[in-house]
Amino acid sequence: MTLAAQTPRSDVDLFADDTLLDPYPTYRDLRDRGSAVRLDALDAWALPRYDSVRRALGDWEAFSAAGVALNEPVSQMLVGTVLATDPPAHTALRAVLSDRLGPRAVRPLQRDIAERAETLVDRVLAGGTFDAVADLATAFPFSVVFDLIGLPDEARPNMLRWADATFTVLGPMNARAADGLSAVGEMFSWVGGLTAANLKEGSMGRAIFQAADEGRIKHESCLPLLSAYAAAGLDTTINTISNAVHLFAVHPGEWDRVCADPTLVPSALNEVLRYDAPVQVFGRRATRDVEIDGVVVEEGAQVLVMYGSGNRDERHYPDPDRFDVTRNPTDHLSFGYATHACAGQALARIEAQSIIAALAKRVRRIHIGTPVRHLNNTVRGLDRLPVTGVDLRSA
Ligand code: HEM
After folding, report:
1. Which residue is closest in CA terms to ligand 1's atom 6?
2. For position 283, which CATH number holds?
3. Is 23 contained in some domain?
4. 64: which residues sit within 8 A by CB, 6+ positions away?
5. Ligand 1 lined by 241 (C-beta under 6 Å)
6. Structural domain total, the chain
7. Residue to mutate (ligand 1; options 345, 354, 380; most atoms within 8 A of CB)
8. What is the DSSP secondary structure assignment for residue 294, as one 8-state letter?
9. Does residue 282 have its Cβ closer than 6 Å to ligand 1?
10. Residue nearest to atom 18 of ligand 1 (CA)
11. From the CB of 151, is ligand 1 less than 6 Å away?
């Protein structure tokens, strides 16, 4: 198909190391070009503006989740998973997850998770210096989510590597995605060997097998659903907590406001999620020609839904590059929107808010060394965040 001369286009590689390190100037450039921008290097369309992201996420009939991965081999691997399935088949898969992950289901976990957060925060602070990624942001979701899913302990040493690979292979088939494929293969074959008996009694994982026994989903859906839990529940929350500690350290004035008024914790978390979306981009496939602001995205085209760019759209958020814990952007795009909106967001909020609240009670100032950014095709976070000291609140 020939594109009209006025079609907004760009030859940027959104997945190059330099772009991933600081994608925000590139995002702004794409937003300035249009609501839908042809990416020549990827043979795909970027949707960089808030409204165009919401539009695509809200219309699964025109923008199919079968295109959630930006490359064909991984799209094939994802057939039958909740992430890559459209309604009506999606509805039954999703209901099984929502039963155990919905706000009502996770509310009773709140107290236990808050207590675990307090214990962990006390432990890391006692050491004086620590790595906020390994010791706090990773250790916490790892213990909470692993137990809830009821996975056998033998997977612990591999699960982080597998979860990271699961996200990076969703990008275009660059070197990073190609490297991740073998780890994803390992994870699928390990999960493929699990049965209900391997999962702890009463766990979220066991509930998936029960749903199949009750005929609510097919037995072959159990393993894809289990993989969705395991991968989606870790890296995302780990990056959220790492990003939060980093942002509070480099914006001490905003941290002071949270500490002075702990009722700001939910608003502050929304701002952390808006400012640095843990999932920056997922794909969709256009099922027909779709017009977006006068530009036609053609049937069959690969589309990039850019949560991380939409969250910084100056057409939607005033002064979007300012980190402001009182902004309370409840409509941020970091949990997606509509049909595939994050199934685990209630749990993720409880986890991240518990850590922020526990820190706010104890720590007046967080001092950090140089953070090391983690490069992944889909998620945005850190490899290391050395906390070189904290000023504790006097008792
Ligand atoms: C702050 C942490 C989290 C973030 C930023 C996040 C982000 C997202 C996003 C953007 C989507 C939408 C995918 C799409 O549009 O195609 C999603 C879906 C999903 N998330 Fe999360 N997530 C987080 C935590 C969790 C947790 C803790 C779990 C489970 C324990 C989880 C499970 C899922 C599942 C199963 C889906 C697929 C839903 C569907 O396709 O219907 N997430 N998440």
Report:
1. 335
2. 1.10.630.10
3. yes
4. 86, 284, 285, 286, 287
5. no
6. 1
7. 345
8. T
9. yes
10. 342
11. no
Q: Is residue 3 part of a domain?
A: no
State if residue 306 touches ligand 1 by the CB under 6 angstroms criterion.
Answer: no
Give nearest CA residue, ligand 1 atom 4: 236
Angle at 33 between CA 327 and CA 16, to 5 degrees: 85
Cα of 5 vs centre of ligand 1, distance in Å, is 38
* Cα-Cα end-to-end distance for the chain: 68
Regarding the beta carbon of 278 and ligand 1, being less than 6 Å apart is answered yes
- pLDDT (tens, 9 = 90+) of the chain, 395 residues, equals 556 658 999 999 999 999 999 999 999 999 999 999 999 999 999 999 999 999 999 999 999 999 999 999 999 999 999 999 999 999 999 998 888 899 999 999 999 999 999 999 999 999 999 999 999 999 999 889 888 899 888 888 899 999 999 999 999 999 999 999 999 999 989 988 889 999 999 898 999 999 999 999 998 888 888 888 888 889 999 999 999 999 999 999 999 999 999 999 999 999 999 999 999 999 999 999 999 999 999 999 999 999 999 999 999 999 999 999 999 999 999 999 999 999 999 999 999 999 999 999 999 999 999 999 999 999 999 999 999 999 999 86
Is residue 12 within 8 Å of 24, Cβ to Cβ? Answer: no
Pairing of strands 44-47, 37-39: antiparallel
The CB of 205 under 6 Å from ligand 1? The reply is no
Measured CA to CA, the distance from residue 163 to residue 184 in angstroms comes to 8
CA distances for 385 relative to 223, 245, 249, 282, angstroms: 34, 9, 10, 26
This prediction has a pTM of 0.96
Whole-number Å distance, alpha carbon 343 to ligand 1 midpoint, is: 5
Domain extent for 158: 9-392
- Taking CA atoms only, the protein residue closest to ligand 1 atom 11 is 342
Residue nearest to atom 43 of ligand 1 (CA): 342
Residues 6+ apart with CB under 8 A from 175: none
4 lies in a domain?
A: no
Domain-located, residue 1: no
